[in-house]
Amino acid sequence: MAKKNKKDTKRRHEKPDFPKFKLEMPDYKKPDFLRKFMTQRGKIVPASRSNVSATFQRKLRQEIIRARHLGYLPFVDK
Question: Where are the residues of the annotated region Disordered (predicted)?
């Protein structure tokens, strides 16, 4: 087998942590803020696209689901 070249491997980009961007912590009572991290169809944007940390993404997911159950956000936008 041939050796893998360092140039051939994909590099992971370091994701900036949310305090650097001064993003507030997600809260289910702020649907306008949560919509920034959703597509037009109502899906949650992946962390690789929204450029947030894994910790922030987990909290964001939890708050979006909570807001959907309480009726602040729709499950699906038509």
Answer: 1-23
Strand partners for 38: 44
| Domains in the chain, CATH or no CATH each | 18-70 (4.10.640.10)
Residues 49 and 21: their CA atoms lie apart, in Å, by 15
What does the block give as tokens for 29?
A: 């009572």
Q: Each residue of 20-78: pLDDT tens digit?
A: 556 788 899 999 999 999 999 999 999 999 888 899 999 999 999 999 999 999 988 77
Q: What distance in Å separates the CA atoms of residue 58 and residue 78, rounded to the nearest whole number?
A: 26
- Cβ-based neighbours of 27, under 8 Å, separated by 6 or more: 33, 63
